[in-house]
Amino acid sequence: MKTVLRALTALAATVALVLTAAPAQAAVWSSTDRWGTWSSNGYTLYNNVWGSGYGPQTIWANSASNWGVWANHPNTGGIKSYPNATKYIGKKVSALGTTTSSFNVTVPTSGVAFTTAYDIWSSDNAHEIMLWMNKYGAVGPLGTLQTTASVGGHTWQIYRGSNGANQVYSFVRTSNTSSGTVDIRAIAQWIRTQGWFGDVTIGNVQLGYEITSASGGKDFVTNSFSVTG
């Protein structure tokens, strides 16, 4: 019996040593606060749980370009949150040089309602450009369909409307993608050519997940994200 006990004690010590030697990787930053924010390398991350009827949401980040959220919002209508990473540009459309953004995401494709979307603002927040890179579930853009066009490296159905506070231009990609590069300058110049806005200053460029529902808890992961310009 003593031999058996010594063997079991040795085994337990070995298991404890293995578990201690290989701890789970912890994120550099995380927050369950609705308004949790974190800044790094010129970018700011926002948990941004702003809609009514929301559930719990946790944002985490290893870096400004590698971050994600776990969200458990009920299967009801209305946007619950827009967790995002943001970089400020601060240049007029006419003064934009090469201004692009690249992204790669891993997102749920069933049991959810959301879009992976860029939100690009004029500096006075009077104009909002949304670039819908993928969408799942019962979600749709604001406004009315204006045209279908290829601009900025992608083909979109383009909607125009107002939310009562600002003008919204929604570029909904004609097929879903989880990675790619968008030419922000080309899109801003195209809108200006339509006469929808003038030589506005481009302010915040955001990429995130506009989540309506994610019942039971879903993971949205930004594998990489960058803005140049």
Topology (SSEs and partners):
Layout lengths: L1 H20 L7 E3 L5 E4 L2 E4 L10 E7 L2 E6 L12 E9 L7 E7 L6 E10 L4 E10 L7 E8 L2 E9 L4 E7 L5 E5 H10 L7 E13 L4 E11 L1
Parallel strand pairs: 9-12
Antiparallel strand pairs: 1-4, 2-3, 3-6, 4-5, 5-15, 6-14, 7-13, 7-15, 8-9, 8-14, 10-11, 11-12
What do you see in this structure?
The chain has 2 helices and 15 strands. With 229 residues, it is mainly β. The strands form 2 sheets. The chain has a 9-stranded mixed β-sheet, with helices on one face. Strands 1-4-5-15-7-13 form a 6-stranded antiparallel β-sheet. A hairpin with a 2-residue loop joins strand 2 and strand 3. The chain is globular, with a radius of gyration of 22 Å.
Short account of what is shown:
With 229 residues, the protein is mainly beta. The protein is built from 2 helices and 15 strands.
Number of strands: 15
Mind describing the biggest β-sheet?
A: 9 strands, mixed
What's the shape?
Answer: globular
How many helices does DSSP assign?
2
Percentage of residues in DSSP E strands: over 45%
Unreliable spans are 1-24
Cross-sheet strand order for the largest sheet: 2-3-6-14-8-9-12-11-10
Q: Radius of gyration from the CA trace?
A: 22 Å
N-to-C order of helices and strands: HEEEEEEEEEEEEEHEE
What's the end-to-end separation, in Å? 72 Å
Structural class: mainly beta
Query: What is the average of the pLDDT values?
Result: 91
